[in-house]
Recover the amino acids of this structure.
């Protein structure tokens, strides 16, 4: 993996080059092994937190980890196009619009001992802006090359905080065209429900059960690109001890292996239906 400036990452995508890079500010990674009509994203995978923010932050490293989506990049790392955030959503949240991306409170708790300066905020928001410049370039290139593409927007959620039974997988679809895409959304839900997981974990899947797909990443792409379907795909944190801060690597690896076949199979099915 090489370190590249924003302009060089954008240039490589525009020229349809194969590459793997981390942005020069280390805020995100992108890998393109081949150009395909689908891409994978793990925008909340990151746990990095700028050192200048440490003393001012009221949340511990564990509290931040608890609300992040650890291991979601590892679940999709085998796919040909993967973009992933490196920074914690507690610095800036890539799944919120710029004006809401920097929290003042987080999950009911004041986040900062002292209000952040505008200079500090601007440093974080530049990274948010640059990420979306790359996303825009990438999706634009894929639509131009293939006529249609699918983005698998991977997230996770804390299932133990719910006081009812919740699904292993939740698809948030309230901001996509269900009339146009309902059948292929159901195909994806069904495929996830058929996954075989270790430790007797059932792979249940539902649509808009715990979350409805209101994230900025999905909304941004859906607003700007009419021939791209974003599938906000959330896995319950059955792959870790969310209260203990422990990862279960055998579950993460199994999910990755299952998705190695399930994502491209589904993406090909979607593409066959909607390619121009």
């Amino acid at each position: 993996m090489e370190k590249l400036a924003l302009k060089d990452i954008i240039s490589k995508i525009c020229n349809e080059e194969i590459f793997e890079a981390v942005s020069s500010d280390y805020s995100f990674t992108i890998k393109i092994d081949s150009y395909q009509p689908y891409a994978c994203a793990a925008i909340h995978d990151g746990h990095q937190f700028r050192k200048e923010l440490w003393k001012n932050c009221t949340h511990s490293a564990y509290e931040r980890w608890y609300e992040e989506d650890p291991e979601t990049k590892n679940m999709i790392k085998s796919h040909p196009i993967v973009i992933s955030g490196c920074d914690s959503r507690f610095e800036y949240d890539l799944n919120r619009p710029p004006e809401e991306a920097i929290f003042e409170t987080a999950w009911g708790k004041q986040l900062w001992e002292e209000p952040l300066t505008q200079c500090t905020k601007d440093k974080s928001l530049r990274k948010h802006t640059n990420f979306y410049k790359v996303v825009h370039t990438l999706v634009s290139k894929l639509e131009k090359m293939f006529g249609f593409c699918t983005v698998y927007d991977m997230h996770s959620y804390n299932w133990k905080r719910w006081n009812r039974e919740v699904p292993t997988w939740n698809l948030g679809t309230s901001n996509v065209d269900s009339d146009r895409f309902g059948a292929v959304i159901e195909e994806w839900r069904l495929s996830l429900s058929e996954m075989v997981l270790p430790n007797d974990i059932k792979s249940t899947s539902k649509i808009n059960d715990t979350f409805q797909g209101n994230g900025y990443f999905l909304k941004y792409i859906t607003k700007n690109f009419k021939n791209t379907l974003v599938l906000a795909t959330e896995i319950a944190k059955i792959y870790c001890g969310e209260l203990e801060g422990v990862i279960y690597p055998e579950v993460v690896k199994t999910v990755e292996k299952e998705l190695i076949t399930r994502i491209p199979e589904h993406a090909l099915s979607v593409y066959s239906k909607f390619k121009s």
Q: What stands out?
A: The domain at 2-274 is CATH 3.40.630.40 (Aminopeptidase). The chain has one domain: 2-274.
